[in-house]
Write a structure and sequence with these properties.
It contains 15 helices and no strands. The longest helix is centred in the C-terminal third of the chain and has 18 residues. 35% of the residues are buried.
């Protein structure tokens, strides 16, 4: 791609992030690595359903509100047992959607059995949903995002990627700070979720990985820490 010729070097991005965080030591304390493929493969299908559901409900709500309700969610939905939820009759879903222990949003509650079915179908082919996720190449992580959006329920936009990150799959995130960087450097323009923008973002992070040898997760964090209102001593925004 033409923009790669004039793209910033990773060393320049890293240097700016170090300056903003005060020192290389401070920056490294803020970074985190994804899970290995082996560790990722050990997660249960129930773990994935729970995290997808958490991120679906966190979208548009204060995360603290959802987290405070989460013990109730786990009780109501049998700790997100995929097997149990697949056998749940439709009338029981309506009953659970009105339970005061959860956020009573029927449209979002409907995603739980729908995503349980997606997870089950993939697990039947790959042995487990985690094995499917673990083998997906990070140099085409936007392909996995697209798969979740197409086959899952309400997993488009940042919802699917944030769930992947939360459980340890190596992925960059198009947070506000990362988006701001990509736009400022003319890497993307137009809609954030267009195929053109996603492809350009993937190419950028692939190049950064080639230069640095770091994970997509670490690179995403470094880019975010180098822009926006997140200097040392200033309240940090969510930019990872």
């Amino acid at each position: 791609m033409r923009y790669l010729i004039s793209m910033e070097k990773f060393s320049d991005i890293y240097k700016r992030a170090v300056e903003r965080k005060g020192s290389e030591k401070m920056l490294k304390l803020l970074l985190a690595k994804p899970l290995s493929k082996k560790a990722l493969s050990t997660l249960s299908d129930d773990d994935w359903l729970e995290e997808f559901t958490r991120k679906v409900f966190q979208s548009g709500f204060y995360w603290s509100v959802i987290n405070s309700k989460w013990p109730g969610f786990r009780e109501v939905f049998w700790e997100f047992s995929v097997d149990k939820l697949l056998m749940m009759p439709p009338d029981m879903l309506e009953q659970k959607a009105s339970d005061e222990r959860i956020i009573r949003n029927y449209k979002k509650v409907k995603t739980i059995p729908e995503n349980a079915y997606m997870i089950h179908e993939i697990a039947q082919e790959y042995g487990s949903f985690s094995k499917f996720i673990a083998q997906w190449p990070t140099d085409n992580i936007i392909g996995l995002w697209a798969h979740l959006k197409k086959h899952g329920a309400r997993l488009g936009g940042n919802t699917g990627p944030y769930a992947l990150r939360a459980l340890g799959k190596d992925t960059f995130l198009l947070s506000r700070d990362v988006e701001s960087y990509l736009r400022a450097h003319k890497i993307i323009d137009g809609g954030l979720q267009t195929k053109k923008s996603l492809t350009a973002a993937q190419a950028f992070f692939n190049e950064m990985q080639k230069q640095s040898g770091l994970s997509m997760q670490e690179l995403s964090l470094i880019v975010a820490y180098g822009v926006g209102d997140n200097r040392v001593g200033i309240r940090q925004q969510s930019g990872n």
